[in-house]
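re: that chain from earlier
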Amino acid sequence: MSHWKALEPLIVEDAVRALRELLAEHPHEQFYAAAFQNLYRELDGPVYLPGLSANSVDAREDGPSGDFWEADWNPPDWRWADIDFQSPALAAAADAASNAMQQSTRAAWLAAEQECIDMLVTASQKIREALGNSPQLRPDFVVFLHDEEGGGALARRCIGDPAFFELFPAEAKNDRERQRVAALPVAERVDWLVGRLNRFDGAISSEEAARQLCAIGAPAVPALLVRMGNGKSKHGWDSAQLLGRIGVATPEVLAALQKQMAASRDQPAREWAARALAYLGQSDWLLEQLSRADNPMPALLMIEGLCAPYSSFRDPTPLPLDYRPLEALLGGPASTIDAVLDILKPGSSYCALRPGEIDEALRGLGSPHALVRRHAASRFNDRGLGTAVGERALPVLAERIAHDDDVDVRWESIESLGAWKRAGQPWRAVVERAAREDPHQRVRDAAQSLLDDAAA
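^ sequence. v structure.
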């Protein structure tokens, strides 16, 4: 167990004190809500306690909306958006909890993050109870944790279902609608979800509909093909994207994507068809089209598709990591290489590395192409891959730091080695040497930063 649960009495005491002071300073205001907001955390990094906010009936710009997503329920928009409430004791305890979780394993970090969230939920409930029935509080006054990731579900945990649905009747309606859709036969559910794509109102947004369609898988494919049409549909780009994510490479699917790629007048639809074909294992076909002198399609279209498996858009697809198509591109003419380097330039959002892809990523670290080595080195920046992977990858990263002739590969290798925290300590001497002797300031700075973090 982490240290976060132990903070609960402190955060309740400090928040209740601050809110009572606020009530005393504004005796003519009637308050309808208080909230913790902006719980900052970064994976494997620090966690900072949220701020405390409150709002009154008079401070609302309009009347009560009954909509959780409107400004009157968005703490950063409230009149008292940042109440100073943390005592020195609470701040010190939070720093200690954050530091402790950064020194542990990835699994322990994730467990501590959840414990922190759970603590803030129960603290919200206890703060509401401690404030009692002051006449300055509306009878339906609530305290909740506002978090972009947790959304309404997290606030609902704090407030409780009866009060939450009374405050937000639209959420109750949406909850019933989600349950109804979930109970539909698969074919009917697919049709309903396809109708929600590119819609952002109602119980299920476009993003959630897409997620559910991908979870349904193959039974959703026929409806997406119909939606994609004959290559001229305005829905061609997102239909192709979902077909790539689902990963069902039937002849019908491949033919439809190839037709859209060749014939659509919508550039995003053509590009997503090319990407989807790569996600469906058709990189060899794309390479063949690229090599054909009589191919009327722009070369950049095939290159966009062939580069797609190395970007983060690959992550929801079942396609395994394979650097061979990328190496084939990098063995092509200068114009092709320049296009690839631009698409996959430093700072691009790369795909995550999966446990079953370690062998290919390690092979990539030894590729004759610097771009492949750079990509592979950057993908090992995840200590959540586990100890066994670290034992294989960290010595290779250290070797890249010491001997690679590409500055970006050395820099990425240092960054990834640092992500493994204590597990990277056996290669400290390599990092120290890089901090002193690497010919590029950027690499020296990264190495020194790693050393400084380890010493902190």
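The beta strands are 31-37, 40-41, 47-48, 51-56, 80-83, 137-146.
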